[in-house]
Amino acid sequence: MLLHNRLYLSDAAAQDQASERNALFGLRKTLWILPRAWCATASIQAKGIPRHKTAEFVRLHLTRLAPFVDSGAYACRSGDWVFLWFWENQRVREFCQRNELDFDSITVAPESVCFPKRQEGTVLYRCSEGVEAQLWHQGRLVDSAWWPGSLDATTWAEWQPTAAASAAGRGVPVSWPESLPHIVNGSPGDASLNKPWASNLLAPQWWTGLKTVRLGASIVLLSALLVGYAGYLATQWLTLQRMQNDVDKKIEALSSRIDPLQAARAKALEYQYWTAQIARLAKQNGIRPLLESFKPILLQQEAALREFELSEDEVRMMLVPMVTELNIAAIIQQLEALPNLANIQLLPNSDPRAMRLTAKLRKFGVPASAGEAIKPAKSEVSK
C-alpha cells in the first residue's frame, strides 16, 4: 500500500508500485519499509566520536554486531549512542526476485524509524507484526523492544527493569506511566508512517547512487540538465543583449550631447585658422613698406639684399656689394635713421665681402608715422 511513496516490503505493495514505477521511468524513489519482525537491534556507545566520523566508527563494529551471515544494516545516532537495526539480506533478495526489483538500487528502512519522533516518555506502536515499545528522553531514543504478539501488563512490567537499566547506564532519567500505555496504531494504512526520523549513517553517498540509476532515468535526467543549461545560456544571452541595448542607448544619448560640442569646436578651429591666415597676410603687408625703406640705402651704397628674415619683433638680413666693398659704418648709420629699426648689431659671417646684421622692430605693421617717413625716400628714388 502506497504511503506517500513509502511502501511496506510486501508482494501486494510491490504490485501496486510496479505500474507507477513504469510510468515515471523510475524517477520517483521508493522507500521500502522493513517489518520490525524482520529486524534485530543493537546499540553501541559513540561518546567522544565526532558526528562526521560516526559512520566510520560504526563500520568498525558491524562484523562483530551483525547477527546474520549476510546482514543489512540501518544505523542512526541518538545522543552519545548509535542504534542499529539488522536484517537478513537473503529475505530481501527473494522479495526482489519475486517482484522484479533491483536489490542493489532499492532503499530500505526499518519500521521503527518510520514512527513519529517523540520528545519524552514511553510509547507503544502496533507494527505490521507485533508491538514495539520506545523510550524517549529530550527527543532522543533511549531504548526499544519488540514483542511478536499482543502486549499485556505482565510483559510490560517485565521489560521495565531492562529499560531502566539501559537508561541508568546512559545517565538518562526514566519517566514510566503507571499503567500500560495505549497502543498507537502504526500498521500499513496509518498516515503517521512518514519519512524516517533519522537518516541511515551507512547509506551510500549520492555519487555512488549515480551508478545504479536506470537508463530511462539517466536519459530523462540528462535531458533535464541539457534543457536547464540551454535555458541558462538563453537567459545569459538575453541579459547580454539587454545590457548591450542599454549601452547603445547611453552612447546615443551622449552623442546627442557631444555632437554640438564637436561642431562648435570645429567651428572655433576654423575661426582660429582664418585668424592666423589674416595675421600672416597682415604681417606680409608690413614687409613691403619696410623693404621700400631699404631701397634708397641699397642704391646709395651700391649693395644688394641677399637674405631677409622677418620674425615677430626682429629682422635679420645679409647685404653683399655690387661693385666695391661695403661701407659698413655708413650702412649702419643709415639703417639707424629708419623709424622702424632699433638696436642694429652685426652678426658673425664667414664671407668677408658680405654683411650680416640684425635689428629690432620698433613697431609691427605700418603706422601713419612710418608711412610719412617712407615718402621722402620714395621721392628721392624718383629723383
Write up what this structure looks like.
The chain is of the alpha+beta class and 383 residues long. The protein has helices at residues 11-23, 54-65, 89-98, 153-169, 206-209, 215-301, 328-336, 368-382; strands spanning 6-8, 31-34, 40-45, 71-78, 81-88, 107-110, 120-126, 131-137, 140-147, 183-185, 303-310, 314-321, 341-347, 355-361. The chain has a four-stranded mixed beta sheet, with helices on one face. The chain has a four-stranded antiparallel beta sheet with strand order 11-12-14-13, with helices on one face. Helix 6 crosses helix 8 (368-382). The longest helix has 87 residues, at 215-301. The termini are far apart.
Compact overview of the structure:
This protein is of the alpha+beta class and 383 residues long. It has eight helices and 14 strands.
List the helices and strands and how they pair.
Elements: E1 6-8, H1 11-23, E2 31-34, E3 40-45, H2 54-65, E4 71-78, E5 81-88, H3 89-98, E6 107-110, E7 120-126, E8 131-137, E9 140-147, H4 153-169, E10 183-185, H5 206-209, H6 215-301, E11 303-310, E12 314-321, H7 328-336, E13 341-347, E14 355-361, H8 368-382
Parallel strand pairs: 1-2, 2-6, 7-10
Antiparallel strand pairs: 3-5, 4-5, 7-8, 8-9, 11-12, 12-14, 13-14
Helix pairs in contact: 6-8
The geometry reads as rod-shaped
Distance between the terminal alpha carbons, to the nearest Å?
A: 142 Å
Q: Largest sheet, if any?
A: 4 strands, mixed
Proportion in β-strands:
15-25%
* Strands ordered across the widest β-sheet: 9-8-7-10
Stretches where pLDDT is under 50 for at least 5 consecutive residues are 22-27, 188-192, 364-383
As an assembly, this protein is: single chain
Could you say which structural class the secondary elements and strand pairing correspond to? Answer: alpha+beta
Provide a count of the helices.
Answer: 8
Helix content: 40-55%
Mean pLDDT: 79
